[in-house]
Amino acid sequence: MARKKRLDVNEVLDRERAGYGLQEEQNIYQTAGYIRLSMEDSGKTDGYSLENQEKLVRDYIADQQDMRLYRLYIDNGATGTVFQRPAFDEMMQDMKDGKINCIVVKDLSRLGRNYLEAGNYLEQIFPFFRMRFISITDGYDSNSPDVTDESLIIPLKNIINEGYAKDISLKITTSFESRKKQGQFMGRYPVYGYLKDPANKNHLIVNPETCGIVKRIFQMRDSGMALGAIASQLNAEGIPSPARYLWIKGLSKEERHQDSYWDRINVKRLLTNKMYLGMLVYGKERSSFAKGIKRQRVPESEWKYVPNAHEAIIDQELFDSVQKKLEDAKQNFLNMTGINEDYRPENLFRGRIHCSDCGGAMKMSKFVNTRKDGSIDRYAVYECCRRKKLYALSCPQRSIRKAVVDKTVEEAIRFHIRTFLDTEQIIAKLNRSSKGRAAASDIQNHIREKQRRISKIERLSTGIYEDYREGILNEEEYLAIRSQYGEEKEGLLKEVDALMLAEREHEADYRSTGSLADIVRKYAEFPELNREIVEAFIADIRVHTDSHLAITFAFEDEFQRLIDMAEQRRRETV
User: What would the pLDDT profile of 170-199 be if each residue is shown by its tens digit?
Assistant: First the structure.
């Protein structure tokens, strides 16, 4: 019997895709319900409450036969103008981990009020992860057949949501500014030495537990005690630092506050705070979502003050005396060291040099000393930040001159580059040997052999479909054989890729490829060390007590692979 006409391969594939699509539609969606309530939404009675949102989302999911509620993700008091929210971040991680494949919200404003970010999630991120997204009251379902028409309206809704958020932001900012002008405290935590008045949370009252410590710190500095010495004394007596006090009292839940100690920074911050004079100090930072202004520090000269906003802990005379001593100490230090704006050594290792014990950053400090003969010695030193602040409460004392680090790292990078290039040449030389060429020829033969088998499998795969069409094979047999051919072909393709990589590595004029190879060739003859080269080659530097440096290079796996390849090639050609 003559064979029937073969179906076009693309037609077969289209039918198979359609079948898989139907199967996917029948699957149950692991659904996340996302609920968000911001401060500006609190108190509303139009469905924005957490309870109303939860009921709406739960009822909707329960009515859908193809959905199962995986869990609810709730951000309470989180603004919609940014997408860094605890529950939202957790939901995104579960999406990436494949735990959920559908998200349901009350409306688009719950997703976010920044239209560019919201649009990015709807048009890029969710489709990339094959995430179905449903906004109940907007009637939006990304799986809907008419989603293209609906999507034309979505950007407009997102713009409206952002406009609403900007309007609310402007109103809230104006309201806060007005209340601060009236002397009302709007901060999250009360200033150390004070409590929020139980009768009026925007008014501060003296804290009998800590106000005496504030007075003592001012008196210690007024008597000539250094900032570091004050911090050490308070720590030795077991007096909690301002941040740790908040954590102990349960006012702060931030874990970092649990291990906070007194140091020179928070002692100085306390001594220069005019809140202790009874003033309300505000305007230290500036930000406005409505005006597109990101959070930024404001110069002290532009800070704003409201006198007699609360009871003073420190009198003006003592406060002024302490400020004078702080300024005098600063000038004495500058005069003693000779530090000035003319000496500005570049911190080449910022963010990449750490203490080997605590893992904290090493800070670069500059010094300018005048010798007895009148000559000037300019140098910079890296010091452990934690040790510098906490003294004996931290790791062992250590410091290392910048010049030593510069020289050591530069020599290490140059050696790294030379070793890489020399190893490349060794591999190329071994590849050109008789045994090296024989190995390359053997690899090429293996590639051709496997490519022939792949071509044969492709022909056989087409043939078995005709056998299935003519009834020679039943459906079960056809699918089993097709699966077998598919698995074999996939394995062969992987083997060919590996062999082709091995073929390139056996080339007579071998040159390594990859990120490390690129930067080695770019900086092979660099004149002197600079920040760009450090960022390219160095991942981390650890400073030990004996000034020993442990350098971790970027792309170490790539470098080790080249070394291992040279050793393997040497064994092959022996």
Answer: 555 555 566 666 667 767 788 899 998 898
What's the CA gap between 145 and 285, in Å, rounded?
49
| Strand, helix or coil for residue 553 | strand
CA distance 99 to 68: 12
Give residue 52's region: left, alpha or beta (phi > 0; psi -120 to 50): alpha
Sequence-ordered alpha helix ranges (H) in 43-98 = 50-63, 86-96
Residues in the chain: 574
Q: In 3-state terms, what secondary structure has residue 267?
A: helix
Extended beta strands in 65-207, E state? 67-76, 102-105, 132-135, 140-141, 194-197, 200-206
Task: Encode pLDDT of 534-557 as tens digits.
Answer: 999 999 999 987 778 999 999 988
Q: What is the pLDDT of residue 469?
A: 82
Four-CA torsion 289, 294, 295, 298, nearest 10 degrees: -110
Q: How far is CA 81 from CA 144, 161, 290, 293, in A?
A: 27, 9, 10, 13
The distance in angstroms from the start CA to the end CA of the chain is: 62
Say how many C-beta atoms besides its own lie within 10 A of residue 394's C-beta. 19
CB-CB contact of 120 with 49 (8 Å): no
